């Protein structure tokens, strides 16, 4: 029996993304990975954009992903602590997954200390220079009033609008991202600006859709989790070291 001493991080599964026909295969890859880590995982951090769209109405949640949700429930029942971050695609997670899985839902950043190392965790949306339009949209999407209004729309209409919009997102095109260089990678710029005020050993983000492992000043490290359309990447911390890995079934 393996000891339950590893911490896993992944993000950007985009379950339900256009084309929806690709979701079942991706879901099965993710379930395979979760099944493989369930014996040694102490904690699992799913760091945003797990669902391509998610909204919880008072009595209704979106259809689909039952194998994934069932596997998460199995991990939760085995004692794995699950933490879910709101991404820009699934920021409307409220209390359903908390109630069903005992998961903690994180709005923005979460700072943890494990094995004497400090971690700064965030999905990665709306950070660093630029992207003013999204920063404004985020305020609107996260406003209680707008969420209340959206919930008044019939789900067929509300989720339909969201799915049509999401079909034009970068993940739906399926292409891979290019590294912009350290000065232009806004999450690197952001991490460096945080480091000027406070030291963290690790910065872990999703959102960029590009697996990255970059050394930062003062022995700090930036790690991007990539995504699960092209890369199947995740990070694991074994108590001493943080590693970026690719899931190979
Ligand atoms: Mn994403």
UniProtKB/TrEMBL annotation:
It comes from Parapedobacter defluvii. PANTHER family: UDP-2,3-DIACYLGLUCOSAMINE HYDROLASE, UDP-2,3-DIACYLGLUCOSAMINE HYDROLASE-RELATED. One of its GO terms (molecular function) is hydrolase activity. This is UDP-2,3-diacylglucosamine hydrolase. InterPro entries: Calcineurin-like_PHP (IPR004843), LpxH-like (IPR043461), Metallo-depent_PP-like (IPR029052). Residues 6-210 form the Calcineurin-like phosphoesterase domain. It holds the Pfam family Metallophos. Keywords: Cell inner membrane, Cell membrane, Hydrolase, Manganese, Membrane, Metal-binding.
